[in-house]
Amino acid sequence: MAGTTTAERGERQQESSGPPPARRFARRRLRLLLAGAALVLLSAGGVWLLYGSQWLRVERVGVSGTTVLTPAQVREAADVPVGDPLVSVDTERIESRLRRKLPRIDSVDVSRSWPHGIVLKVVERTPVLLVEKGGKFIEVDDEGVRFATVSEAPKGVPALELSVSRSSSAAASLRRFGEGRLTREAVRVAGALPAAVARDTRAVKVRSYDAISLEFGDGRTVAWGSSEKGNAKARTLAALMKAAPGARHFDVSVPTAPSSSGS
């Protein structure tokens, strides 16, 4: 039987090699064009969904973490653009607006809650001292920030009394450190007090940087000195009050050599 001719072998090789290169390129190009068109449509659809549709818009504003402030106050100050696309809400601007309008807010986290919400998580400042002025009370937080004025003194928060005499040597302390620094020193003292002592403290009095004292509601007093070594002074005071329950005056300005007197 005669074998396959050269011409026949050439025809079979051409058939097995597929379409010509030009046709293969055209098909590849068509697939790329179709993929690109699909990507454009998907992108356009995504943009429309986020910005143009009515599906992903702000409908509610949630508030958490308030104690003195009310959720309504926070919502009003936040001024969230209800009805706007959720993706376009400027959360950093809302945070800045809240801290500016409501100084009682120490920090706030503004986040999106898909598909329709904005959530405001608030942390309020806590007063550790009060400054009485004009029959009202200015609240001072643990950083020495005077953040709010209230008509009634919060319970359990001692008063800050800056009784620096400008005619004495203490005036030099005021000039050197300034009222703000002395206030922060008083805050440090208040922060070092044991809870039981803090509850009984009526006032933290500051005559100079290193002459800070406490006055309890029952008239007992404590010479604290400067705010340095606050933890050691707090431990010493607790032990001294336990050892001399009838004393009227305690001195822990030098915690290694405390003293008590009066009865």
Keywords:
Ubiquitin-like (UB roll), alpha/beta, three-stranded mixed sheet, six-stranded mixed sheet, 40% helix, 7 helices, Rossmann fold
Terminal Cα span: 135 Å
Oligomer state of the chains in this structure: single chain
Q: What proportion strand? A: 25-35%
How many domain units? 2
Give a verbal description of the structure.
Strand 2 and strand 3 (117-124) form a beta hairpin. 40% of the residues lie in helices and 25% in strands. The longest helix is centred in the N-terminal third of the chain and has 32 residues, at 21-52. The protein has 2 domains: 60-124, Roll (Ubiquitin-like (UB roll)), CATH 3.10.20; 129-261, 3-Layer(aba) Sandwich (Rossmann fold). It has a 6-stranded mixed sheet. Strands 1-3-2 form a 3-stranded mixed sheet. Strands 4-5-6 form a 3-stranded antiparallel sheet. The protein is an alpha/beta fold and 263 residues long.
